[in-house]
């Protein structure tokens, strides 16, 4: 039974990531992806938020709150792993800028490939990180389907339009199946984390990450949303790779899995609430202008 669930989880993850990246390529052009990254201020704030502010906040938070070493290790690994593969899908959920989400994801992923091997051994003794191990899934599972989608869009736009809905349906199915499987698999760990209060530390981590990303994600609401969710949702694939290859204690992997799941659930909830909040803010601004 456990083997079947494990296989379902892998299939769901592959379907979700590959279909999301392929579908994103079918919808955009290279110029559209590159254009938001020409905003130097936005790029600098994105890098500052993900590679300085969030890791520093989590590190300081863990100095104040007493937690077991495996839990601390798992949270630090998550804090340092940036560039979630799910970012284009999250951008769709929160009605953000899809082009910026794709460019930001690639920027943060490439940054993580060089950042984690340098920083992680400084904060966690005995941890070794191979840049190529992090880069491989980036190339084969994300950049390759994205590139194929961009090529089809550029050469055969009519075909791209026709297969876009299929790609995004597969992506949605993979997301729903993956969330359901992980909820079932990690239900006991979630209960334990609730009882011990660790899950509230995870929530503080997520809320801070979203808030600082959202506040620094100008110039528009659509880019604020993307940087908010892109900072709150960390690079689960990179974190899990490091957790399984460097730590013997299974609790390290458990906290990585549960935190990632919690991040996805919170972001999906935010996706429903953000448009409502923006409408309220717009009405308030209009009322101020009238008065």
TrEMBL record:
Keywords from the named record: Membrane, Transmembrane, Transmembrane helix
Kinase as UniProt keyword: no
Subcellular compartments: Membrane
TM segment ranges: 12-30, 42-62, 98-122, 134-154, 166-185, 197-217, 252-271
InterPro entries the UniProt entry points to: BilAc:Na_symport/Acr3, Bilac:Na_transpt, Na+/solute_symporter_sf
Membrane topology summary: Multi-pass membrane protein
Residues forming coiled coils: none
A Pfam family hit: SBF
One GO cellular component, as annotated: membrane
Keyword Transmembrane among record annotations: yes
Signal peptide annotation: none
Name under which the protein is recorded: Sodium:proton symporter
Lineage of the organism: Bacteria, Bacillati, Cyanobacteriota, Cyanophyceae, Nostocales
């Amino acid at each position: 039974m456990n083997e079947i669930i494990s296989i379902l989880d892998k299939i769901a993850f592959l379907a979700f990531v590959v279909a999301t990246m392929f579908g994103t390529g079918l919808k955009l052009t290279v110029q559209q992806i590159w254009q938001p990254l020409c905003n130097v201020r936005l790029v600098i704030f994105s890098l500052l938020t993900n590679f300085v502010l969030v890791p520093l906040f989590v590190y300081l938070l863990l100095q104040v709150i007493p937690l077991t070493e495996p839990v601390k290790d798992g949270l630090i690994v998550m804090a340092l792993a940036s560039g979630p593969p799910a970012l284009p899908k999250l951008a769709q959920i929160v009605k953000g800028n899809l082009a910026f989400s794709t460019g930001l994801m690639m920027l943060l992923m490439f940054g993580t490939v060089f950042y984690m091997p340098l920083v992680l051994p400084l904060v966690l003794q005995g941890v070794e990180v191979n840049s190529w191990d992090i880069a491989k899934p980036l190339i084969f599972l994300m950049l390759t389907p994205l590139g194929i989608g961009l090529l089809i869009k550029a050469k055969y736009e009519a075909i791209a339009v026709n297969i876009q809905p299929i790609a995004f349906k597969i992506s949605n199915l993979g997301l729903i199946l993956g969330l359901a499987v992980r909820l079932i698999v990690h239900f006991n760990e979630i209960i334990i984390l609730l009882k011990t209060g660790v899950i509230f530390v995870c929530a503080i981590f997520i809320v801070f990450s979203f808030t600082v990303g959202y506040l620094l994600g100008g110039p528009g609401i659509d880019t604020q949303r993307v940087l908010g969710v892109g900072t709150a949702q960390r690079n689960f694939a990179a974190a899990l790779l490091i957790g399984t290859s460097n730590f013997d204690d299974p609790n390290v992997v458990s906290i990585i899995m549960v935190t990632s799941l919690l991040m996805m659930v919170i972001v999906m909830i935010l996706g429903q609430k953000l448009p409502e909040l923006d409408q309220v803010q717009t009405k308030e601004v209009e009322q101020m202008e009238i008065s």
